[in-house]
User: Fold these one by one.
Assistant:
Number 1:
Amino acid sequence: MIILNEHLGQEADEVADKLNETYGFSPWIDCKTHDFFDKFLTCVQRPTDLPKGILSTSLELRRKLKDEYGKDKKVLVLTQRDIFDSDNPNHVDFDEDWLFSFSFGKLSMISTARLKRPDNKPSNELQVSEDLYMKRLQALAVGEIGLGFIHNPAHFKDAIWVNTTKGNRLKLGPSCTNNSCAMYGVVDIKAPHADEGYMLLGKEKRYDAGLDNLLERLGDRPDWLCKRCRDSVKVGKEYL
Ligand SMILES: [Zn+2]
């Protein structure tokens, strides 16, 4: 597996270490310039000094990465740009449509844009401790990458974020049902207030799907997987 980063060398090292500790393989690290990502990603300009956002529909990038690294390699991109889930760069709701991460085929991508503050707002500057910032990033990486080879075990259920104030629902994909496992779904930095919404896990409403809440539950355990996820790990050759 390759961790391709956009000037995030230290972050790439920390993620590689945690993936190695958790899953037992050593990702290879590569770096590309802003120009490379500008060329192969669909960017959205915002009326702020934040870097351009990008859309999760990254067809061009997927093609380019296949050319560059071969079609069978798994690539995790780390970027400081906000990722938005929209098909149209002209109709993006900057407060609602953002994602921490996504996976599509052999490409996974994680954004650091919303990991730097006590709340979920995007920032260029680190406003929480470096330790918390790196742990947030590592937890997202362990969860996102694990989905590639912990294949829907029996204890997984489909998770949906239900925004009760706006009435919209967003599919999050499969999630572990153990809330003290890195494969548990997260919807925000802090678990949203019950008035705002909940994560529907199978038929159950969960009000604990914050990234920082998950980190508190993971505590100082070196292994962030629950036993059932641990027993289901089978790393494919595209990761080696
Ligand atoms: Zn689990």
Note: The pocket of zinc ion is lined by residues 176, 178, 181, 183, 225-226, 228-229 (CB under 6 Å).
Number 2:
Amino acid sequence: MNVNCPTCKIEIQWSKENAYRPFCSHRCQLIDLGAWAAEEHSIPGEPAFHESRYDEEAMLPCKLDEEVFYS
Ligand SMILES: [Zn+2]
């Protein structure tokens, strides 16, 4: 059975002898894990989302204060 290495797409044989399957080599396995880690690290875009959400919430009391002030 042949599979394509997810990293470099080279065709390799899926065998018990290949400790790095489905990768062709340890290097490709590390690259893929690195890409995975990089994706994990890209999630910290989320705190920015939370920040902007909190900003919106923080603005609400001001708006209410204004309404109360002008009423
Ligand atoms: Zn590879």
Note: The pocket of zinc ion is lined by residues 5, 7-8, 10, 23-25, 28 (CB under 6 Å).
Number 3:
Amino acid sequence: MAAFGRQLALTRTSGVCQIATGSPVAPGPTFRVWDFWNNRWLRRTLRAARIGALSVSIFGVGYSTGASDVLADPTEFRRKKALSLLKNIHAFDAEGKARLCEETSEEVQAVRRVLPRVLKAARAQVGILQEEIQDAIKQQGEASYTQQQDLDSLKRARKRLESWSDDGFLLADVNTPNAFVTPMLPRTIFVHRGIFRIHRLAEPEALHAGAEVFVLQDGWKKAKLVSESQEQWSALLGDSLGEDSETITVKKEDVRILQTRNLVENDEQLAMLLSHELAHAVHDHGYESLNILTTAYSLELVLLSVLDPTGMLEFLLEIAAGAIARYAFVLPLGRCDEMEADATGLKICALAGYDPRLATKFLDRFALFEGYTGPTWTSTHPATEARIKALKDAEADAVERFQQHKEKQAP
Ligand SMILES: [Zn+2]
């Protein structure tokens, strides 16, 4: 028993394990049987395995909690998820209510007109891609690993698109030109109202009494100008501009007018935008990046546990983990995803009977709006030269399809 106690009281000196006894004992082969336990790499491997297992089970717990939430009440789960995503894009008013465009608005009507057509075309596109791969497999005699993977992902895409309803979109009343799909809420396209028209406050060139303007009064407020003096305007403050409106005076430089700029101007341009978003679903892009993100987090934990015995680096990196995973894994993938979604988007557009030649013009138009609003469709979807070139390359094929579609439609 005493010998066992002595064996456990191990100390480490210069990387060699010795038994602590009253007098120094030269490390002899008799006691080396415990040495393996103090082996640095063994300990690190065990630690990595432990953390790996831990992260897998944490993911598992999260996954099953999510899954049970979905199973308990799918509609409520989607509603909650939609609300949290709307919050992310600031589509909430001061009272905390989601800001969505009215059903009767021009914007909602436009999406209602175009989405069913592009959805149908996206489903057809999945069928075309499946046939292409199956033909290739027939010629080779057997499916390669990548082909098998592509077929699996198309199968998932088909399921997702088949259950994507014609009202699978949310039109948020937000003044930024953006649209996106996310694997967090499948079968829904988020469209910002700013995609159609954005408002901005501009310096007025000329003003006159009676003009409706915005004035700087604890933030920009609506007002109606009444009369002018040398440096100032007197104005009636308020939305209703009724008789009980408060009269104020403002400096001339604190007066702005509301300017509206149109972006997506016709159904063709809207079709391209929606087709691009559906193309992400066709190629299963969200699914891939979610997987990669989870793998990145787990891998990071394991690597850190091996390379960082003090835990200091781990602590620092944990804080930045989200950003690191995003920049290292998700964004580079995102960029080539965008090109693929453009090319497929063009084809979907053409299949739906919208002229794909409008697409590149449409990107140029968006580039004009970079810089003065929040994230735009072109910053989440950077309009790089490479991207525009890829679009042009894909155009010829899409135009051919569009002509075929037109011929089919012709009496
Ligand atoms: Zn995209």
Note: Residues 276, 280, 338, 341, 381 surround zinc ion (CB under 6 Å).
